[in-house]
């Protein structure tokens, strides 16, 4: 006596309909695999030993090994007469379609595709219900609904499209204002950073009350909330014409950004903070404020701990800050600034070398003799010669040559060469 399984008949019907669609050419196995493979582990028996991809047309050799037809035929076309897995010489080079395995592959991927499709439909339905709920509730119920929606948006691309296409962007944005709680604001911001914001919506989010809320939440939220705030502000500034930069460049925001940049436990937060700080520093009128909160010594202190990507951004920020008098003074007053910057020349990238050399130039303008002496003692001359002899851009080589000439003025030729720490051949 067979045991009744709820939903079994429906599942079998769905699979049959899917197979029918594939036979009629509406859907093919390759598309099915692409839809499913990235989100689930595929059984190893379905994987071709040559391409390490799921097999579309499995065929078996005389050795008993199975491969995808296109891959094994390509193997033969290269002049091989062996089994790729066992390296046995083939006594028969014919290939036999493995219909049983092909059926298993098709059935397995069909079932997974239908399960995934049903799950996505459920997710879309849940997202629509949550959007409707947000229009009707307030307080902690609204916060919980936002949190659930944010988790769906984080996890499913389809949810993002559902929210965008059903008025979710305007709805979530409208929840941000002067009286919004930080708990609600944090969830709303977490949703917005994952969506495609229109120019109109970005302008709406640049309202002073909303910007003020963003800055407050960034200073008091969790590390993930801080990162989301930094991402959202970056998105808003990328759209702006310049005036928006000043609108968000409050001392409170700058202080919050530096806290984010100093958090070594969260490298992603450091990167997000540096990127936003770089964008803000592109406005000359803001640079003095950035210097006034101690950004220069804090960034200098961070340099040895940063990865290459963050290091390049941090040096760019310092180079930009060196264009204002306060920035040059702050650089000069940093302990061991010259030897620390000299070490970065020709160490990471040509871009980093250019930024580092520009920073040294800025310090040199304030104290020529002191800077030149300390730089040479730190090994600057040897680094400059390496730049000149490298494949760097002509502008950087010219700058290095001029700096090298300046540094050599206070030394005799023999002493200066010894400072370069070069080989006898180069001497």
Please characterize this protein's 3D structure:
This protein is mainly α. The chain has 24 helices and three strands. 68% of the residues lie in helices and 2% in strands. A three-stranded antiparallel β-sheet has the order 2-1-3. β1 and β2 (66-68) form a beta hairpin. α8 packs across α11 (223-239), α14 (267-281) packs parallel to α17 (308-321) and α22 (380-389) packs antiparallel against α23. Mean pLDDT is 83; it is low at 1-7 and 422-427.
Could you name the key traits of this structure?
427 residues; mainly alpha; three-stranded antiparallel sheet; 24 helices; 3 strands; 68% helix; 2% strand; flat; disordered N terminus; disordered C terminus
Please sum up the structure shown.
With 427 residues, this protein is mainly alpha-helical. It has 24 helices and three strands.
Task: Please outline the helices and strands.
Elements: H1 8-23, H2 29-37, E1 58-60, E2 66-68, H3 69-77, E3 96-97, H4 99-134, H5 139-155, H6 157-165, H7 168-174, H8 182-192, H9 199-205, H10 208-220, H11 223-239, H12 243-248, H13 251-262, H14 267-281, H15 284-292, H16 295-302, H17 308-321, H18 325-332, H19 337-342, H20 350-366, H21 368-377, H22 380-389, H23 394-408, H24 413-420
Antiparallel strand pairs: 1-2, 1-3
Helix pairs in contact: 1-4, 2-4, 4-5, 4-6, 5-6, 5-8, 8-10, 8-11, 10-11, 10-13, 11-14, 13-14, 14-17, 17-20, 18-20, 20-21, 22-23
